[in-house]
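thoughts on my protein:
***
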Amino acid sequence: LKSLRKKKNKLISLTAMTYNISYEHVGDRKDKIVSAISNAVSDVDVFGLNEYNEDWKSYNLTNRFSGFTCYLGEDGMKWHESDSFIPNDRYTEGFYNPIFYRTSKFDCLASGTKWLSSTPDKVSSVEEKKDNLFNRTMTYVILKDKETGVTFLYVNTHLSTASTEIRQQQLAILADLVAEIRTGAYAGIPVVIGGDTNEPTQGNVVGTNGLPASDYAVAWSIAKKQTGKATMLSDRTYDSTGKGWSGTLTNVMLDRFVVTKDVDVKEYRTVDNATNGIYPSDHIPLKVYLNIYN
Protein backbone atom coordinates (compact mmCIF):
# COMPACT_ATOMS: atom_id res chain seq x y z
CA LEU A 1 0.00 0.00 0.00
CA LYS A 2 2.81 2.36 0.83
CA SER A 3 4.52 1.82 -2.53
CA LEU A 4 1.22 2.35 -4.37
CA ARG A 5 0.72 5.61 -2.51
CA LYS A 6 4.15 6.81 -3.55
CA LYS A 7 3.47 6.09 -7.21
CA LYS A 8 0.08 7.77 -7.16
CA ASN A 9 0.79 10.87 -5.11
CA LYS A 10 3.16 13.75 -5.77
CA LEU A 11 6.43 13.76 -3.89
CA ILE A 12 9.04 16.32 -2.89
CA SER A 13 12.29 15.77 -1.07
CA LEU A 14 13.44 18.55 1.22
CA THR A 15 15.75 19.30 4.11
CA ALA A 16 14.55 21.18 7.19
CA MET A 17 16.62 22.58 10.05
CA THR A 18 15.95 23.97 13.51
CA TYR A 19 18.46 25.93 15.61
CA ASN A 20 18.19 27.67 18.98
CA ILE A 21 20.68 30.53 18.61
CA SER A 22 20.36 31.79 22.26
CA TYR A 23 19.31 35.28 23.33
CA GLU A 24 22.47 35.77 25.43
CA HIS A 25 25.70 37.58 24.45
CA VAL A 26 24.34 38.42 20.99
CA GLY A 27 26.85 41.21 20.41
CA ASP A 28 29.75 38.84 20.97
CA ARG A 29 28.41 36.05 18.80
CA LYS A 30 26.50 37.60 15.91
CA ASP A 31 29.14 36.97 13.25
CA LYS A 32 29.71 33.42 14.50
CA ILE A 33 26.00 32.64 14.31
CA VAL A 34 25.71 34.04 10.78
CA SER A 35 28.67 31.91 9.74
CA ALA A 36 27.30 28.81 11.50
CA ILE A 37 23.90 29.14 9.82
CA SER A 38 25.38 29.96 6.41
CA ASN A 39 27.57 26.87 6.58
CA ALA A 40 24.69 24.66 7.69
CA VAL A 41 22.01 25.68 5.19
CA SER A 42 23.74 24.88 1.92
CA ASP A 43 21.44 21.84 1.54
CA VAL A 44 18.50 23.21 3.57
CA ASP A 45 15.16 24.27 2.06
CA VAL A 46 13.35 25.57 5.16
CA PHE A 47 14.56 26.32 8.68
CA GLY A 48 13.42 27.85 11.95
CA LEU A 49 15.29 29.70 14.69
CA ASN A 50 14.50 30.01 18.39
CA GLU A 51 15.40 32.73 20.91
CA TYR A 52 15.48 35.33 18.16
CA ASN A 53 15.16 38.43 20.34
CA GLU A 54 15.31 42.18 19.72
CA ASP A 55 19.13 42.09 19.64
CA TRP A 56 19.02 39.61 16.78
CA LYS A 57 16.27 41.64 15.14
CA SER A 58 18.39 44.82 15.29
CA TYR A 59 21.21 42.90 13.62
CA ASN A 60 18.79 42.18 10.75
CA LEU A 61 19.50 38.48 10.74
CA THR A 62 16.42 37.87 8.58
CA ASN A 63 18.15 39.31 5.51
CA ARG A 64 21.58 37.70 5.81
CA PHE A 65 21.02 34.38 4.07
CA SER A 66 21.02 34.52 0.29
CA GLY A 67 18.13 32.77 -1.40
CA PHE A 68 15.92 32.68 1.70
CA THR A 69 12.84 34.69 2.55
CA CYS A 70 11.92 35.02 6.23
CA TYR A 71 8.55 35.11 7.92
CA LEU A 72 9.42 36.68 11.27
CA GLY A 73 6.07 36.27 12.96
CA GLU A 74 4.96 38.14 16.07
CA ASP A 75 6.81 38.91 19.27
CA GLY A 76 5.76 35.95 21.40
CA MET A 77 7.27 37.16 24.65
CA LYS A 78 5.14 40.26 25.16
CA TRP A 79 3.49 40.60 28.55
CA HIS A 80 -0.19 40.88 29.20
CA GLU A 81 -1.22 44.52 28.95
CA SER A 82 -2.57 44.40 32.50
CA ASP A 83 0.55 42.76 33.91
CA SER A 84 2.78 45.20 35.78
CA PHE A 85 5.10 42.50 37.14
CA ILE A 86 8.29 42.30 35.09
CA PRO A 87 10.90 40.20 36.94
CA ASN A 88 13.87 40.81 34.64
CA ASP A 89 14.45 43.18 31.75
CA ARG A 90 15.75 40.38 29.54
CA TYR A 91 12.27 38.87 29.40
CA THR A 92 10.85 42.00 27.77
CA GLU A 93 13.26 41.97 24.84
CA GLY A 94 10.95 40.03 22.56
CA PHE A 95 11.22 36.44 21.39
CA TYR A 96 10.32 35.45 17.85
CA ASN A 97 10.18 32.06 16.11
CA PRO A 98 11.14 33.03 12.53
CA ILE A 99 10.88 30.68 9.58
CA PHE A 100 13.17 30.92 6.53
CA TYR A 101 12.33 29.25 3.21
CA ARG A 102 13.96 29.12 -0.22
CA THR A 103 12.28 31.62 -2.51
CA SER A 104 13.30 29.72 -5.64
CA LYS A 105 11.64 26.52 -4.38
CA PHE A 106 8.47 27.61 -2.58
CA ASP A 107 5.56 29.98 -2.75
CA CYS A 108 4.17 30.95 0.65
CA LEU A 109 0.38 30.57 0.59
CA ALA A 110 -0.31 31.58 4.19
CA SER A 111 1.50 32.47 7.40
CA GLY A 112 0.71 33.44 10.97
CA THR A 113 1.49 33.41 14.67
CA LYS A 114 -0.65 31.76 17.34
CA TRP A 115 -0.21 31.92 21.10
CA LEU A 116 -0.22 28.56 22.85
CA SER A 117 -3.09 29.39 25.17
CA SER A 118 -6.88 29.31 25.33
CA THR A 119 -6.88 32.66 23.48
CA PRO A 120 -4.43 31.94 20.64
CA ASP A 121 -5.15 35.10 18.65
CA LYS A 122 -3.98 37.51 21.34
CA VAL A 123 -0.99 37.85 23.64
CA SER A 124 -1.55 35.19 26.29
CA SER A 125 -0.11 32.19 28.09
CA VAL A 126 -1.14 28.98 29.83
CA GLU A 127 1.50 29.56 32.48
CA GLU A 128 0.23 30.81 35.81
CA LYS A 129 3.33 31.54 37.88
CA LYS A 130 4.45 35.13 37.67
CA ASP A 131 8.10 34.13 37.83
CA ASN A 132 7.76 32.16 34.60
CA LEU A 133 4.93 33.82 32.73
CA PHE A 134 6.21 33.41 29.18
CA ASN A 135 3.82 33.81 26.29
CA ARG A 136 4.82 30.95 24.00
CA THR A 137 3.86 30.87 20.34
CA MET A 138 3.82 28.77 17.22
CA THR A 139 4.78 30.46 13.96
CA TYR A 140 3.66 28.78 10.76
CA VAL A 141 3.86 28.97 6.99
CA ILE A 142 2.04 26.99 4.33
CA LEU A 143 4.50 26.37 1.51
CA LYS A 144 3.80 25.18 -2.04
CA ASP A 145 6.57 23.59 -4.07
CA LYS A 146 6.81 25.54 -7.33
CA GLU A 147 7.68 22.51 -9.46
CA THR A 148 5.27 19.85 -8.19
CA GLY A 149 2.55 21.81 -6.42
CA VAL A 150 3.06 19.77 -3.24
CA THR A 151 1.83 21.83 -0.29
CA PHE A 152 2.71 21.38 3.38
CA LEU A 153 2.52 23.16 6.72
CA TYR A 154 5.73 24.08 8.53
CA VAL A 155 5.53 25.07 12.21
CA ASN A 156 8.25 26.59 14.40
CA THR A 157 7.74 26.66 18.17
CA HIS A 158 9.56 26.98 21.50
CA LEU A 159 7.87 25.40 24.50
CA SER A 160 8.00 26.31 28.18
CA THR A 161 10.83 25.58 30.57
CA ALA A 162 8.42 25.60 33.54
CA SER A 163 7.23 21.99 33.68
CA THR A 164 6.24 18.94 31.67
CA GLU A 165 2.61 19.62 32.60
CA ILE A 166 2.66 23.06 31.00
CA ARG A 167 4.44 21.75 27.92
CA GLN A 168 1.74 19.10 27.55
CA GLN A 169 -0.92 21.80 27.70
CA GLN A 170 0.93 23.76 25.03
CA LEU A 171 1.26 20.70 22.81
CA ALA A 172 -2.45 19.97 23.12
CA ILE A 173 -3.23 23.54 22.06
CA LEU A 174 -0.71 23.31 19.22
CA ALA A 175 -2.36 20.12 17.96
CA ASP A 176 -5.78 21.83 17.96
CA LEU A 177 -4.41 24.88 16.16
CA VAL A 178 -2.74 22.75 13.49
CA ALA A 179 -6.00 20.84 13.03
CA GLU A 180 -7.82 24.15 12.47
CA ILE A 181 -5.28 25.21 9.85
CA ARG A 182 -5.61 21.86 8.06
CA THR A 183 -9.19 22.52 6.94
CA GLY A 184 -10.83 23.81 3.79
CA ALA A 185 -8.32 24.25 0.96
CA TYR A 186 -5.56 22.92 3.24
CA ALA A 187 -7.39 19.88 4.54
CA GLY A 188 -5.05 17.00 5.31
CA ILE A 189 -1.82 18.65 4.13
CA PRO A 190 1.41 17.17 5.54
CA VAL A 191 2.88 18.81 8.63
CA VAL A 192 6.47 19.37 9.77
CA ILE A 193 6.92 20.80 13.28
CA GLY A 194 10.36 21.92 14.47
CA GLY A 195 11.78 23.79 17.43
CA ASP A 196 13.01 23.67 20.99
CA THR A 197 10.52 21.56 22.93
CA ASN A 198 12.42 21.89 26.25
CA GLU A 199 11.15 18.35 26.85
CA PRO A 200 13.81 15.68 27.50
CA THR A 201 11.37 12.75 27.30
CA GLN A 202 10.32 11.82 23.78
CA GLY A 203 7.11 10.18 24.99
CA ASN A 204 5.97 13.51 26.38
CA VAL A 205 6.22 15.09 22.91
CA VAL A 206 4.29 12.45 20.96
CA GLY A 207 2.21 9.89 22.79
CA THR A 208 -0.36 9.76 25.56
CA ASN A 209 0.94 12.97 27.12
CA GLY A 210 1.86 14.86 23.95
CA LEU A 211 0.81 15.21 20.33
CA PRO A 212 -1.45 12.31 19.29
CA ALA A 213 0.54 9.30 18.14
CA SER A 214 -2.27 8.45 15.72
CA ASP A 215 -1.26 11.48 13.63
CA TYR A 216 2.35 12.32 14.52
CA ALA A 217 5.77 10.74 14.98
CA VAL A 218 9.04 12.10 16.38
CA ALA A 219 11.51 12.29 13.51
CA TRP A 220 14.30 10.68 15.53
CA SER A 221 12.27 7.55 16.17
CA ILE A 222 11.28 6.91 12.53
CA ALA A 223 14.42 8.11 10.74
CA LYS A 224 15.96 5.52 8.45
CA LYS A 225 19.37 6.92 9.36
CA GLN A 226 20.45 8.70 12.56
CA THR A 227 23.61 10.78 12.51
CA GLY A 228 24.18 12.29 15.95
CA LYS A 229 21.61 12.65 18.69
CA ALA A 230 22.11 15.41 21.28
CA THR A 231 21.08 18.96 20.34
CA MET A 232 22.10 20.86 23.50
CA LEU A 233 25.33 21.13 25.46
CA SER A 234 25.66 19.59 28.91
CA ASP A 235 27.83 21.26 31.57
CA ARG A 236 27.90 24.36 29.38
CA THR A 237 29.92 27.46 30.26
CA TYR A 238 30.10 30.73 28.35
CA ASP A 239 33.62 31.60 27.23
CA SER A 240 33.92 35.39 26.82
CA THR A 241 37.31 35.01 25.15
CA GLY A 242 36.20 32.43 22.62
CA LYS A 243 32.80 34.15 22.36
CA GLY A 244 30.76 31.00 22.64
CA TRP A 245 29.97 28.03 24.86
CA SER A 246 32.10 25.12 25.91
CA GLY A 247 30.45 21.89 26.98
CA THR A 248 29.75 18.33 25.93
CA LEU A 249 27.20 16.76 23.61
CA THR A 250 25.77 13.80 25.48
CA ASN A 251 22.14 12.75 25.09
CA VAL A 252 20.23 15.98 25.77
CA MET A 253 17.55 16.15 23.06
CA LEU A 254 15.40 19.23 23.49
CA ASP A 255 15.27 20.44 19.88
CA ARG A 256 13.09 18.13 17.83
CA PHE A 257 11.19 17.56 14.64
CA VAL A 258 7.74 16.00 14.62
CA VAL A 259 5.98 15.01 11.39
CA THR A 260 2.65 13.65 10.27
CA LYS A 261 2.41 10.11 8.95
CA ASP A 262 2.58 11.21 5.30
CA VAL A 263 6.17 12.40 5.79
CA ASP A 264 9.08 9.95 5.55
CA VAL A 265 12.24 10.79 7.47
CA LYS A 266 15.25 9.64 5.50
CA GLU A 267 17.82 11.00 7.95
CA TYR A 268 18.10 12.75 11.31
CA ARG A 269 21.39 14.67 11.51
CA THR A 270 22.90 16.99 14.12
CA VAL A 271 25.55 19.53 13.14
CA ASP A 272 28.52 19.66 15.50
CA ASN A 273 29.67 23.21 14.76
CA ALA A 274 32.34 23.69 17.43
CA THR A 275 35.60 25.43 16.61
CA ASN A 276 38.43 24.64 19.00
CA GLY A 277 35.88 23.34 21.50
CA ILE A 278 33.72 26.49 21.40
CA TYR A 279 30.14 26.42 20.11
CA PRO A 280 28.37 29.51 18.67
CA SER A 281 25.28 28.71 20.79
CA ASP A 282 24.47 26.38 23.68
CA HIS A 283 22.41 24.35 21.16
CA ILE A 284 23.52 22.93 17.83
CA PRO A 285 21.59 22.80 14.53
CA LEU A 286 19.39 19.79 13.82
CA LYS A 287 18.51 18.74 10.29
CA VAL A 288 16.02 16.24 8.91
CA TYR A 289 15.96 14.95 5.35
CA LEU A 290 12.37 14.30 4.30
CA ASN A 291 10.13 12.92 1.60
CA ILE A 292 6.72 14.60 1.65
CA TYR A 293 3.72 13.14 -0.16
CA ASN A 294 0.69 15.18 -1.19
Remarks:
- The two ends are 15 Å apart (CA to CA).
- The chain has a mean pLDDT of 89.
- The chain is about 15% helix and 30% strand.
- The first strand starts at residue 11 and ends at 20.
